[in-house]
Automatic annotation (TrEMBL):
This is TetR/AcrR family transcriptional regulator. Residues 45-64 bind DNA. Coiled coil: none annotated. Pfam families: TetR_C_43, TetR_N. PROSITE patterns: HTH_TETR_2. It comes from the Bacteria. It comes from Kitasatospora nipponensis.
Length: 192
């Protein structure tokens, strides 16, 4: 895999409005939806999302005609952000780039879980998003492996599954997830 050097191809589900005020509303709705899904999962209220964004429910439906459009748009936006982070981190030392991207991936998994629950994996967006994540993060692992700082006996899929597993459990205290992630990442480091 080649190292990410250019801006990644964005996954677009619903077209962002061009007018500045409409674009602000669109962005506010996505941010509010991401927050609501993280807090309440797939059952987050659309009315609550509109209220959090400071807009009426009609504005939400003008931008996202169905609940599914909103779920897919939030999911695609998160994956687009992950791809952009990979580009931003590409100039860092290989280990710092890889672990920086994985920390952002952990934040993404909260949204992914809520959206996947709502859509039951029945979306073509998931396939495009999965490929985008592999295209963005895979080269960071490859570069870390080539630099001798990450284990050579693991695939990017292995790494994502490990980190996803960590994020899927409930933790008893603030900061425990981050400690467990650090322990797991220590196992990713190359020895010797």
């Amino acid at each position: 895999m080649a190292e990410p050097t250019a801006a990644p191809q964005e996954i677009v589900v619903v077209q962002r409005p061009r007018r500045a005020d409409a674009a602000r509303n669109f962005d506010a709705l996505l941010a509010a939806a991401r927050e609501a899904f993280a807090e309440h999962g797939a059952d987050a209220s659309l009315e609550d999302i509109a209220r959090r964004a400071g807009v009426g429910i009609g504005t939400l439906y003008r931008n996202f005609p169905t609940r599914r459009h909103l779920f897919e748009s939030v999911y695609a936006e998160e994956v687009n952000a992950l791809a952009a982070v990979a580009v931003e981190l590409a100039d860092q030392e290989p280990w710092a780039a890889l672990t920086g991207w994985l920390r952002r991936f952990v934040e993404y998994t909260v949204t992914k879980r809520a959206v996947r629950e709502a859509l039951n994996g029945e979306s073509d967006i998931f396939l495009a998003c999965r490929q985008s994540m592999f295209d963005a993060g895979g080269p960071l692992l490859t570069r870390a492996q080539q630099a001798g700082v990450a284990r050579a006996d693991m695939s990017f899929d292995d790494l994502l599954r490990m980190v996803s597993g960590i994020t899927s459990v409930a933790f008893v205290e603030e900061g425990q997830r981050d400690r467990v992630l650090e322990i797991a990442l220590d196992g990713v480091r190359a020895r010797g």
